[in-house]
Write a structure and sequence with these properties.
alpha/beta, 11% strand, TIM Barrel, six-stranded parallel beta sheet, 322 residues
């Protein structure tokens, strides 16, 4: 069992698939091995069994990529409401073990903002997760700002999760290697570049000047941005910038990061030194990453018990009011 400080373990990037929504996926996004599919579709005994075996007390559950970000049909909003209601019902069956992030129908931003509010106020959801581009459009586009405005008003975070890069990016950057190394367009590199780019664009767009209390969460120890934040900030301060830009201040004040799928001591220490331990949240990325490596890793990280307790659950309790 986990040797840890006397605190619960809250893992906040833990996924599932809804059968109705996932049935809309085509191509490689819909292909998973049977064991993975069993875990993605489980919201009960199997999930809790594997949590217990690794010492995870609570999962904050979110729909896996691409979620609803590629829906275009007129019934997208109604479908997403059904998806969220089914997750809410599963959480209600295990209220001490599960919490939820809302799925959002970004094809209709106004409806997405309303759905975020419905799930937060009526079902106690802790925010929402958005996966990659929304029907090929970057999230800094002004059409999506009502979603961020509502999140700020509700004081809940938006979790920016990776999805496959834009098809043109895959064609130009990865086509020679994607067949032999399929993870290069996913967790090995493509996910990171795409999500970090989305985060940078949100800052450049002026979104945080308009919504200074907006809270954004990035997984995988910040998609490389904590390592690069000093250089990005310094470069953006050089002559030629359209307006004064304080990238580092915004990133370190409006963003939180998680440990999902990145159990590296040097990377964690870089994040702690750049952003502070209070900005780091524990996550595993189940079922794409098994639970035990994540909880075992936290035994060995070179931090004091007080800081470990913050990462394992204290920071999540404060950010999500859990």
């Amino acid at each position: 069992m986990l040797k840890k400080p006397n605190c619960p373990v809250i893992a906040i990037e833990e996924h599932y698939w809804d059968r109705e929504l996932s049935a809309t996926y085509t191509g490689v996004e819909g292909v998973r091995n049977p064991e993975m599919m069993n875990r993605l579709f489980d919201l009960g005994d199997l999930r809790i069994k594997e949590m217990d075996e690794a010492g995870v007390d609570v999962q904050l559950i979110s729909h896996g990529a691409p979620s609803a970000q590629k829906l275009t049909t007129p019934d997208a909003v109604a479908m997403v409401r059904r998806v969220n209601d089914r997750l809410a019902a599963a959480i209600a069956r295990h209220p001490t073990r599960f919490a939820g992030f809302a799925t959002l129908p970004t094809s209709d931003p106004a409806a997405a903002a309303d759905e975020l509010e419905r799930m937060v106020t009526e079902h106690g959801f802790k925010g929402a997760m958005i996966h990659g581009l929304a029907n090929g459009v970057f999230l800094d586009d002004a059409r999506f700002w009502p979603i961020f405005a509502r999140a700020e008003k509700l004081d809940v975070p938006i979790y920016l999760h990776p999805a496959l890069p834009h098809p043109q990016v895959m064609e130009v950057y990865y086509k020679e290697y994607a067949k032999d190394f399929p993870m290069v367009i996913r967790a090995a590199w493509g996910f990171t570049v795409e999500t970090a780019t989305i985060a940078i664009r949100l800052v450049l767009s002026g979104l945080f000047e308009k919504h200074p209390r907006l809270k954004i969460v990035l997984g995988h120890l910040g998609e490389t941005l904590p390592f690069l934040v000093w250089r990005i900030d310094q470069a953006l301060s050089r002559p030629g910038t359209a307006r004064p830009m304080h990238f580092r201040d915004i990133f370190c004040n409006n963003f939180w990061i998680t440990t999902s799928g990145n159990f590296s001591n040097p990377a964690l220490l870089c994040c702690a030194m750049e952003m502070g331990v209070d900005r780091i949240l524990f996550a595993i990325d189940w079922p794409f990453v098994p639970n035990p490596p994540g909880t075992r890793w936290m035994e060995s990280v070179p931090l004091c018990d007080e800081d470990k307790a913050k990462i394992l659950s204290g920071n999540a309790k404060r950010l999500f009011r859990m």
